[in-house]
Input
Amino acid sequence: MPTPEQLEIRRALAQRAGAYLREGYHCSESVVLAAGPRLVRDWHPTCARLSTGFAGGVGGSQHELCGAIAGGVMIIGALLGRVSLQDDALAQSLTKRFRERFREAFGETECSWLRENVVHLEGGLGSCAVLVERTTVLLLDVLAEAGVPVPDT
Output
């Protein structure tokens, strides 16, 4: 069970991700820009550039993976991914868990489906910013459950 301080950190990072989207960043960039500097020890701003192509369901197509989940996967990779042929089981496991939680929460991972059935549907979230915020919380939950520390904001 997260402490009140941990909950506040998660809320602040989620709000920061939503704020980035509202400023004009893409969903993928928003998650990466909010979470990356706080979670990845050797973070460099250039890392955020890697997420740009995942915007709008990969290159704006809206037919592929939601940018918010893509950004979360990139953060997991930045934290736990491999740079040699070492074991990648933890990164793969957490990525799978993150994807499953996302599907449980929203029903699908495809950008256009999410926009039609979750974001813009009558009574839906109303904004991709809300989806980005909730996805950031899902990411932080999965990381916390695995014992990956989330530093202060």
